[in-house]
Specification:
10 helices, about 270 residues, alpha/beta, 7 strands
């Protein structure tokens, strides 16, 4: 790989070749996958692109440009939550640059599974937390609201309480500062939600040529069926792995973290990813 100055929206771990890239969620949750990148970098080179574009198409092109410039292609993408969708869409548009998709804690791929997500989250919160969650959502959706970054960060905190089964809270190796950008979240998510609602998100799977595996926690409020069933119907080479006693973020789960990394390394070893 040519020696190039690294842009501000890219973190690099390990040594070249950089044939694995983690892709963070959000949209706008920059940095949340750095613990995963650090773990994987013990035996491989890993890229951690930070998404800064304020549209779905913009984020796809931004990610493509970083991978083509700094990655060893074809590359394996480990996408988390929103990053799983972003990796999936990129693999559909540019199949030649993606060797394998690993989708972690993905959102559901069909609209019919969406309603249960918030229902599940709210059912796990206290009455006061439920009221705050719903109030925060309403305020975020009000165009007149200012300081949305603070509100979105608080919403993430509330969601994380309901999304985790047995979270790790005192491990400095897993602690990471996660950027929260409400402008990115709202503009990009609007595009993404419409892509799913229209059915075009799932249709894109027919253009994916590489193997794909989804890793999903059994306690994740995003329903496992909303990932497993739709993708099994459209992807040519797809496997689904359900992690027990695991919420939305496997590397932050006390009972599932070790198994998650074990699975991840197995998947990266297959076919010399």
């Amino acid at each position: 790989m040519p020696k190039l100055s690294k842009p501000e929206n890219l973190r690099v771990y390990g040594r070249p070749p950089f044939n694995v890239s983690v892709v963070h969620g959000g949209p706008g949750a920059a940095g949340e996958m750095s613990p995963v990148a650090r773990q994987l970098a013990f035996d491989r080179g890993v890229l951690e692109p930070i998404q800064t574009a304020a549209s779905l198409d913009g984020q796809i092109e931004e990610l493509r440009a970083v991978l083509e410039t700094y990655g060893s292609l074809p590359i394996t993408l480990v996408g988390f939550s929103w990053g799983a969708w972003l990796s999936y869409v990129l693999a559909a548009r540019y199949p030649v640059i993606v060797k394998k998709l690993i989708l972690v804690g993905s959102g559901p791929f069909e609209e019919k599974y969406v309603a249960t997500i918030q229902e599940t989250r709210l059912s796990r919160l206290s009455e006061a937390q439920r009221a705050e969650f719903e109030s925060t959502v309403r305020t975020l959706n009000d165009p007149a609201t200012k300081n949305k970054d603070i509100l979105l960060a608080r919403l993430r905190q509330l969601a994380s309480r309901s999304d985790a089964y047995d979270p790790i809270t005192n491990d400095s190796n897993e602690t990471v500062s996660v950027g929260t950008q409400s402008n990115l979240f709202q503009s990009v998510w609007k595009d993404a939600a419409e892509l799913r609602r229209s059915g075009r998100l799932l249709e894109l799977g027919k253009h994916i040529a590489c193997p794909a595996v989804a890793i999903h926690g059994d306690y994740d409020p995003h329903p496992a069926d909303g990932v497993q069933k739709p993708l099994a119907a459209v992807l040519k080479d797809f496997r689904f792995i359900l992690l027990k006693t695991c919420g939305h973020t496997p590397w932050m789960e006390r009972k599932a973290k070790d198994r998650f990394y074990e699975i991840l390394r197995e998947e990266l070893r297959e076919g010399n990813c």
